[in-house]
Amino acid sequence: MTDSTLLAMSQDFTEFLEASPSPYHCVAEVKRVLDENCFIELNEQDPWEEIPPGAYVVRDGSLIAYSHGGGVDTSSDAAMRILVAHTDSPGFKLKPHQTHVSHGWKQLSMEVYGSPLLTTWFDREIGLAGQVIGHDLQKRLVLTGALGVIPSLAPHFESSSGQPAVMDRQKHLMAVYGTHQTGSKPESLLAYFNDVGSTVAGHDLYTFPIDPPRLFGDEDQFLAARGLDDLSSVYPGLRAFLRTDPQGSDMTMVAFVDHEEVGSQTYSGAGGTFLAQTVERLLRGLGLGEDKISQIKANSIMISADAGHGIHPNYPDKHDPDAQPMVGGGPLIKVNAQHRYSTDGWGLALWDGLCRKAGVEYQIFVSNNSVRCGTTIGPILAAGIGVSALDVGVPILAMHSARELCAPSDVDELRRVFEVFFSGGPR
């Protein structure tokens, strides 16, 4: 890839990141791109009497899109090629009562969402993004500019070492956004959003740092941004899906799902029924019976894509001594003996073949035995619909920080491998 091509991809990626400050905005951006490419939206509440060759369905902060070549219902080797990733990122969610007043300060009353690196959110201007629901029960996207900040405590007030004392997640993590006159009634923050067409009655609003994504480093080889976990997988997955046509007997599919950071056991998360129900409805809508559907699942492959850990130069002892993926060294495949990731030996061999065909060097991530291993949606979805799977991603630093770091070159190479996968690469 030429420098100019990589730069163009990096700029397109940063625009995608900026358009996706919440899971709902991410889905809206994916939907916009799919609409531009003539995909049809299906509604879960409607009967699916006809299955168009390319369509998508939305469930809150999750979206599933598919494309099929027309031979899924007739070929004995018909299969699905499914790519899954998640739309949410760790941070804070606005509590129902929204505001708190303390010593003359108006504050955002926030609840920790997932497992963010809390200190990275201090002294950083934040906005709110997500959806509000009016008395008419209609959901509307909303987005603010810089609204508040979580102020840190000066070292003069800390211990003699100047280091922070134990952080109280209730007391110390509420952002200030204004001052309050004594004796006046605290205002509802939702008044900011009452111009959306209906008085706001409910909300799902998340914080996001307003700092834009930025290329930096030697020859701009790195990208700093919020949400790289896991928009660094959603973006190349979407681009690869749109750039490939499924083989005649294949159905290609992307599933971008919400709530991975809080365990996925939700209506729109990987632990829910969204993907399994959608697969069943699509295949039954094509006229397939139970046995044929089971046969297709047995032929199918799922790639679960989620950001992974690059070797940290200041904490190398946290990594396996022999598996130390570098940011900028290519996409990685994740393996864990406890099946925190879904990759097995067959998945390793498949990934090796996909990468060789794409001309991409890959890396392996496996946890240090003395360090707790994370997990992702791959094992949940593979078990939920009965499809063999593997877990991959790009290496990043500062995972769960308000400002993560990746290499755009890794993102683009991951896209190239996904293209081979969707185009019918090695099974």
The first-to-last residue Cα distance is 27 Å
Q: Please count the helical segments.
A: 8
Question: Strand percentage, roughly?
Answer: 25-35%
How do the strands of the widest beta sheet line up side by side?
1-2-3-13-4-14-18-16-17
Helix content: 10-25%
> How would a crystallographer describe the biggest sheet?
9 strands, mixed
Structural class: alpha/beta
Mean pLDDT across residues: 91
Shape: globular
Number of strands: 20
The parts where pLDDT drops under 50 for at least 5 residues are: none
H/E series: HHEEEEEEEEEEEEHEHHEEEHEHEEEH
Radius of gyration: 22 Å
Top keywords for this entry?
427 residues, globular, three-stranded antiparallel sheet, 8 helices, alpha/beta, nine-stranded mixed sheet, single chain
Description of the molecule:
The structure is a single chain. The radius of gyration is 22 Å and the shape is globular. Helices cover 25% and strands 27% of the residues. With 427 residues, it is of the alpha/beta class. The chain contains 8 helices and 20 strands. It has helices spanning 3-18, 23-36, 228-243, 274-285, 290-299, 345-358, 378-385, 408-422, and strands at 40-42, 54-59, 62-68, 79-86, 91-102, 105-113, 126-134, 139-143, 176-179, 200-209, 214-216, 222-225, 250-257, 301-305, 308-309, 332-335, 363-366, 388-393, 395-396, 404-406. The strands form 5 sheets. Strands 1-2-3-13-4-14-18-16-17 form a 9-stranded mixed β-sheet, sandwiched between helices. Helix 3 crosses helix 8 (408-422) and helix 6 (345-358) crosses helix 8 (408-422).
